[in-house]
């Protein structure tokens, strides 16, 4: 942990002064234009990948960049999505999968998750992705990552706040796949996204 203290000191000494005006504005206003839903994987850093400043992205990170389809009741992902769309008024929502995703690898390779029952239950939100990726036989991790991004976009469209914003043309959905090894970001074609998101 000492490197965190050093990092904070460096931030306060070198970074913050150069962005003091930005942070002063952010202290009283929060109007990000994009909701970025990405994987919890430490190698996937939304602000680094997009080179955005603080305040530009509202970020939700979950294992496998999963977004459960809307159901009655509340959970943190649903609340975050609803807040971003109805309160913050984001105009774009990105679901970003990535290469070498541990969650998708576990599903594709059928890992035994009996010692991690909460993880196993959470990954059930990727069942449709796995079924589509397995339609051709053996499941390829890269193909599953792409199928999963498309499935999570479809799940997003089931959330009432998102469905209303899509119908009114107030929000656009985007599916991305980030390749860790080469730094590229591929945007999935519109045909891989929910019809209303085109």
Draw up the topology in text.
Elements: H1 2-15, H2 20-26, E1 34-39, H3 46-50, E2 57-62, H4 76-87, E3 92-98, H5 102-108, H6 117-123, H7 127-134, H8 141-156, H9 160-167, E4 172-178, E5 185-187
Parallel strand pairs: 1-2, 1-3, 3-4
Antiparallel strand pairs: 4-5
Helix pairs in contact: 4-9, 7-8
List keywords for this structure.
198 residues, alpha/beta, 9 helices, 42% helix
Structure overview:
The chain starts with a helix and ends in an 11-residue tail after the last strand. It contains nine helices and five strands. It has helices at 2-15, 20-26, 46-50, 76-87, 102-108, 117-123, 127-134, 141-156, 160-167; strands at 34-39, 57-62, 92-98, 172-178, 185-187. Strand 1, helix 3 and strand 2 form a beta-alpha-beta unit. The relative contact order is 0.14. A five-stranded mixed beta sheet has the order 2-1-3-4-5, covered by helices on one side. The longest helix is centred in the C-terminal third of the chain and has 16 residues, at 141-156. Helices cover 42% and strands 15% of the residues. With 198 residues, it is α/β, with parallel strands linked by helices. Helix 4 (76-87) packs parallel to helix 9 (160-167) and helix 7 (127-134) packs across helix 8 (141-156). It is globular and about 55 Å long.
